[in-house]
Amino acid sequence: MALIEIENLTKHFGEVVAVDRLDLQIEAGEFLTLLGPSGCGKTTVLRMIAGLEIPDQGEIRVGGKKVFASREGIFVPPAKRGVGLVFQSYALWPHMNVFENVAFGLQIQKQEKKDLAERVDSTLNYMRLEGLGQRYPQQLSGGQQQRVALARMLVTQPAIFLMDEPLSNLDAKLRMEMRAEIKRLHRESKATTVYVTHDQNEALTMSTKVAVMNKGVLQQVAPPQEIYKRPSNLFVADFIGSPTINLIPGRIVKKTEGVFFEGTPLFIPIPFLGDCINRKVVGALRPEDIRICTEAQAGSVSARIYAILPAGSEVILQARTGDLTLSIRKMGETSLDVGDEVHLLFSLESILLYDQESGALLYPLG
Amino acid sequence: MTTLRTVLINRFQFILANRPHVLIGMVLVLIITLVVVIPFFQMVYDTAVWHEADRRISREAKPGEWTLFHYKRVFSSPLSRNIFYRPFVNSLTTSLAVSVLAMTIGALMAWLVVRTDMPLRKGIATFAVIPYVLPSYTLALAWLDFFKNERIGGATGLYQFLFGVSTPDWLAYGFVPIVITLSFHYYPFTYLLMSGALVSIDSSLEEAGEVLGAGRPTILKKITFPIVLPALISSFILTFSRAVGTFGTPYFLGAPVRYFTLSTTIYTNIVNRTPPVAYISTLVLILISMLIIYGNQRVIGSRSFVTIAGKGFRHRLTPLGRWKYPALAVLASILLLAVFIPLFLLTWQTLMLYPNDYSLGNLTLHYWIGKGQQALAEGESGILRNAQILAAAWNSVKLSVCVALLVGMFGIFIGYAVVKGRGTMLSSTLEQQSFLPYLIPSIAFGALYLSLFTRKIGPIPSLYGTFLLLVLVCMAKNLPFSARSGISSMLQVASELEESAIMVGASWLKRFRKIILPLTLAGSLSGFILAFIATMRELSLIILLVTPATRTLTTMTFRYVEQGYSQFADAIIMLIVVLVIGGEIVARKIGKREMI
Question: Which residues of A touch B593 (CB under 8 A)?
């Protein structure tokens, strides 16, 4: 049984459907990231798990216990759900110093004074905030404020960590550092973590599982590798990956030799795909699944270099063939120049085919 | 089994635990309905029926029956021009002029004190609010002490003593002196609201503009101004509605030349026992205020700037360069004219044994500490050994503290319920309701309470002559300002700050005490101080409700002014000034401690 089970969860804000009939299971010890563009409902889901938002419909169970059930009118208040939450803005109380901020939760739980000070201090030490207890939030750097926010969540030892874009206010270097910090927290505490972000890099590097959302609807839940390699629909395919996946419009045709994906400029044999013949589809191929060669080869397509974007260890090339612009990732450097004529070779075993209309993944299946 | 009943119980528990603002909002709506809405409808009812007293002016009068007689009398009768149209125009022009002048002074002062490196900023800040401390008609009396001419008889002012010519009427009475004295009295509204808003702006917002290459004027116009605009608009509403409803100053400075405003006609009509006429003028004033507030809601409604977000913020002061000292000189002379010269003049008056004798030999402490002498003021003793006056002083202090505490708490609760419930019906109802008292001028408010509470209403006994009635009326009247400051200080507190306390299971009471109260107190403190000061100097609101047992300092002053004992009147005003400044110093001390 999953630790957090969400069933048919729906939430409206006025006319807007923020979350639409969401089903989601989160296993104990998992690091699940809710990923999606802003306004997709991911924060609302997190706030409903926390108990800060009341859903219109559905059920949430934590450890088998119903914490929300619309049909029975059950609502368990946030503090009794065994969850801790870190806000995007940190929400540190400006009128309390660091120690008081962290101690607050324990005071509410009526901890003994001596015990309390010990626990607060050890949590501060654990978050490498030694000696900052008497400072006020305004006197801390962004990274330190973030650590205090984490310490404040940790000190009450919740079984579930909820984090709402905790790194979005930090600069790139600090963000890398805090990613490592949060991963360490997760590993050492073994607490189930639900993490909200719009940053796919963050999602892919940190999570054991990623749940992609769009317009309130859950698109796919899978480990990061699978999300990247086998996006279950066009939205996920397009949303994940930088540069974005190459999309090649085409159709499925049946020839005497077998079934083919026929797109410009590709013509690829594929295994039999049931009733898909003549359907309009979109072929999708990651930039690293296209190779550049200088000589024409069997199956290669000629193209012209359109732009060259070096990025240190790799280089992203854009090449045009017909109306199509394709991104190509190449490790190392390149001696090519804009305008050069090249030949593109596709790793056909990596191609994904989506139904153009529904966006659903047609190939490969299973 | 899940039944409808358990669902409802669970829902209710949810509201109790997680949406306490809904409950608080409902209780507040109920209370405001009782103290404001019901009196209001009583007033509307009174304009549309015949009264016993109407038998004097019309033979058709049938007491208790519906009639439009009063409306016809006010709007379309030979009397209309004098009892309505002229006062109406006078009210609008004076109030507009006062608003413009007061807001200019207040905004300039706030910006210079909060955001520039002008010298002596602390000193200016200390004195900036004092004009509001003085009862508004005190400046008018000081004006008369200086400019009075022979027109109303009695001793003439210092102007004639110094220059030997009689003061022109336009300078002594009417539009000009009313606008000047009221502007000096009301600019602290703008000053307080604007400095509050300016303090809460993170300098980085402005620096962001600077980085983009915007010049100082552009930053002021495009960044600072839009952020403080809500405060500016609130200032306008406060100033205008107070100016339009004030009675003392236009009465003392306008009546001698028959320059009447709606508020003074309201007073005279109530004193002359034609309350329906007064109430209709009141309705017109309400209409004016409603139009302004409607405009405000359209402008401000969708804006809310969260500027305290649980992250630190900094300030950077604008260097004034060579304008440093000219700026200081301007502010200093404003304070001189609004505070020091009038206070000096008043103090001098209290020390003059015989009026209009400005020689040093005429100075005496008789009116402060003298034993009663038959030859002077009918043998009344100096105010500091006068039991009646000391009792009135105690009443004033008691009343002001009660009202300020009550109204301050109300303000924070209203702010909480309104801000947390943003977008719900309850929230907007409460917000609009808490503004209603502004729409009713003080003098009419007093009259309403007089007519409503002299009788027994249901389980409530007659409250006339009780201290409670004074507390009630002052609380109701001061609600809008404290609601405003409660709402705006609550808007500055990001909701996550409370939510993070919810997450660890802090009860609502705990959250309120530990998080919300400390974070809003600084903002609400200005509301608290203003309520204290306003009550301390309140006259028109309570003059109709005070009995000998519940006399306050202001009503004593009014009595002495009417009797012509300006020394006593001025001495009591000075006493009020001392008490109020003392109260403000205490409040400021508390505020500093609470705010780290």
Answer: none
